[in-house]
Every structure is written in structure tokens, then in C-alpha cells.
Amino acid sequence: MLKLRKWKSILLLMSLTLILTACNGGEEDEGQASSGNGSTISISGSTSVGPLAEKLAAKYMESANVNIEINQIGSSAGITNAINGVSDIGMSSRSLESGEEEEVSPTIIAFDGIVVVTHANNKVKDLTMDEVKKIFTGEITNWKEVGGKDMEIVVVSREDGSGSRDAFQEIVDYSSGELVRNSIIASGNGNIKTTVATNEHAIGFISFEYIDETISTVHINGVEPTAKNVIEGKYPLSRPFLFVHKDLSEESQAFIDFILSEAGQEIAAEAGAIPITEE
Amino acid sequence: MPNPSEVKQKNKSNRLKYIMEFISEKLFLICALISVLSLFLIIGFVFFKGSNPFIADGYSFIDFIFGSDWIPSEDKYGIFPMIVASIYATIGALVIGVPIGLLTAIFLSEIAPKPIAKIISPAVQLLAGIPSVLYGVFGLAIIVPFLQNNLGLVKGQSLIAVILVLAIMMLPTIVTVAETAIRAVPKTYREGSLALGASPIGTIFKVVVPAAKSGIMAAIVLGLGRAIGETMAVILVAGNSLIIPTSITDSVRPLTTNIALEMGYAYGTHQEMLFATGIVLFSFILILNFVLAKISSKGGK
């Protein structure tokens, strides 16, 4: 009898933990301000803008007496934080929607190119925009149809709501409903890169900043994905990087001024983004 | 006659004792209430957020459960593929995990010599302590490439990868709970069986295991709960495709993954629909706990 009671209490405890653990997949961390030396600027949003913002902030904090906190939680969450005042600045890699436009104002801090990537061994180096669309909507399902080996294509896409995905779909011109159903959905640029780098069949898209030698980049309509080609308007897969904000504090304004200055834009170029000054 | 001041002193110390007693009782009560309160807060919050689209915005709950299209940007919310994926993944994990876990538990409690059990037992318990995301990384780095390269799958992120990872993850739960249950079987059962001429293995499967049945069932149900609620490990190896799986090589998106994957970007109805996904998941867990309660109350008879 005693054993049974012990049993029951263990089970009860375990089931309670179970219930609790099963439910906590919910809300993500939101930007939080902490007190430190000087004042704090809290920034949150897009995982595409994030790496660039980190580099800009690191450089800026060397000279200015401010503390900049950056949370990469996705464009929509970042914009929401800016609207709610949870963050001073939201980062977005998609343009604002109608409800959001009235609440916050955008500042373009740089441009980004999106590049279509494949496995490092993939021989296909050039696709037309139409072929890209047909691959992502499932009309083309074998690499041999676009001049590659005779093997199935595995499409890798970002999750619904991602700024990169919205931008990519808008430019390539297909909707979420048209995306091939059995595509792998990966969260974040890094995840797509890893998935594509380890699968010979895969094709995906990432920001310019994430390009490295583990993956092979694809030319679009014969145009190489480079910053120069984006600025000259030749490379079609590009989008603006936005900082969205309400009325700015003095410190935040100074940070944005720094980003838009020549020095800031130089850092942006080093980070793989495309500076706005050369437009 | 006792000295009056002494009596006063004694009363005072007694009073102090009662106050301390009272305070500590209340303290315990408050601690107990915190867990119950957080449970209700979570349930309330999830249900409040998740039921909103069906009550306020007029979405159909039937379409939500049985719809096969999940395209938030086009206002289509159907989680049927994910329900199927969750169920398949859990059943698959059970098929692999239960026999291994059960045999391990039997081995540890009945057969293994002490030195060996001393190595295996902590190892199994340590397995339970590994953060789930590490299981996911392991799956992504070892299982997924293995499936791709050695079994010739087009993509390693698949139902079978999820099943393998979940089967490993549920092992510690099954082993520890089942082992406790088997150990709880009175020694006289075994002695009686052996005395009647049954072999040791015969004794284990015909006498000990049936006697520990309810505990073993509880172990399985707990393992099941672990598998169905697991998120981080699954998100990395599932592939997260929105299809109803027709083979174990298809990539899938279980309920948990859907929530974790899209919550970061979701707002408005999309976010509420993710909470609604949480309600469905929660219902699964509730049913499991109900079954568990039934099993353990039966075990008392």
C-alpha cells in the first residue's frame, strides 16, 4: 500500500511536469532592457538583419557610451516589439504592412541580396527566374531538367511569415500555397545553409551575408549574385533592410546616424550587405 | 505552586511554537498553490488565445482539425497533416522504443549481475538528463546523413529520423519506470514459480512481467507523453513539410514543431491558430494522463 502511494505521487509529479513541459513551446523571449553603464538601446527583429546589426553595434559601442542589445527573433516579432515599445528599434527584412505603417516609420539601413544556393557538388550554376519559380512550385522536380545530374530536387524553404521567404516569393512571384508541398522547412538562414550543405539534392535561398564555401551559389538569368550587380540593378533578388521605430531617443538617433554615415556603410559592405550610399 | 513568571515564559514559548507552525504550514500551502496556479494560468492562457479565432472570427473548428492546408499567409489553417504526423511519429517510436526499453528494464532488474547493472543503470538515467536539443543535433549530424548516404534517401529529414530520435529519447522514461515496477514484484512470486520448476526466463515473462503489468503500462504511457510533446529534437530532423505522410521516408511536421517553428514570426490570427494547435496537443496529453490515471488506479486493486 505504501509502495502504491509512493508510486502514485511519482506518477502525479511526472504527469504534472509532463503537462507543464508540453506546453512551454509557446512564447519566445522578447527584447528586454538591462541596466548597465550608459543608456541602453534595445533592438530586436529579423534574423537576416541581425548579423549586420551586431557588427554595426559592436563597432559603435567602441566609441559611444551606450549599450546595444540585439535579439534576433524574426521580422514580424521585431516590428511588433517596436510598436509595443518593448524594443527601441525593430529590424525588418520585409516592407511594412498596412496596419504597421501607421504605427512605426522605417529607415533603410542597407540592401540585401538573396541568393539561391545548392550543394557544393552541384554542377548547376545558372538558372533563369522562371526555372527558379518552377523548381519552388514543383513543376521541375529533377535536376536533369535544368542541366544537372539525373536526381530528384529537394526544395528547402523558410517558414511561413519569415521576411526572407516573403521577399523571395514576392520577387520570384509565387505564393505560399504554390510552394511545393514536400519541401523541407528550415527556421533561419543558418539552418537552410546546413540543410543544403549536407544534401546533394537540395536547393534553397539565403541572405548574401551567409554565403560561404560550404554551398554553391547560383547565377540568376546569367547574373552573378554580387553586391555590385545588386546596386547596378542587374541582380533581381534583392530587398531593403529596415530599422523601424517610433520617435527616436537621442541615443538611438545617433546610432542610426552612425549606420548611415560613410563609416557605418563601410561596415555594412564588409558584413556582406549592400550599402545604400552607392545607390 | 509554579512560579507565575515561569508559567508566562512557558506560554510565550508555546505561542511562538504555534505561530511558527502556522507560518510554515501556510508557506507549504503557498508553494503547493504556485504549481497549481501556474498550471491553470497556462491552460487558461492557451485556451483563451487558441479559442479566439473560432469564437470571435468565425473559423470552423472542424476545418481546423481536418483541413489539410496550412498556409497562414493565405488564411488557410488546417492541421490534419500535423495530427497524423504526430500520431505516426509517436506510434513508430513506441514500436521501437518499448521492446528495447522493456527488455532493458527486465535485464537491469532481473538478470544483470550487479557490476554491469551499476554501469548501465546510471547510463540510462544520464540519457534522461541530456537536453533535448542535443538529441536533435545528434539526429541532424548522425542519423540524417546516415539515412541519406546509406539508405539512399533523397532527404534524411524524415518520419523515420523523427521516430529513431524519439525512440532513443523515450528509453530512459520507460526503463526507469518499468524497472521500478518490476523490482516492486514480491520476491515470493519468483520463488514460487521457480519452485514449481519454471525456468528463470519463463518466470520473468509468465510471472514477474504480468505482475508488474500496470507499472509497465504506466511506463509506456509516460514514454508516449514524452514522445508526443517533444519539440526541439524533432524540429531539427523532421523536415517540417506540410504533407500527410504516406511513407516513413516522407518529411513531416508534428504539432509541436509547427508551434515552435512559426511562433517567432506569427502575429494576429496566425499566432492564435498556433495556440489552437497547442490546445489540440494539450488534449492529447490530457487524454494520456487520463489513461495513466486509469492504469495506476487499476494497479491498486
TrEMBL record, chain A:
Keyword Signal included in the entry's annotation: yes
UniProt topology in membrane: Lipid-anchor
Keyword Signal recorded: yes
Signal peptide: 1-24
Matches recorded under InterPro entries: PBP_domain, Phos-bd, Phosphate_ABC_transporter
Residue ranges occupied by any PBP domain in the UniProt entry: 32-262
Family to which this protein belongs: Belongs to the PstS family.
Protein name per its UniProtKB record: Phosphate-binding protein
Organism, as annotated: Cytobacillus stercorigallinarum
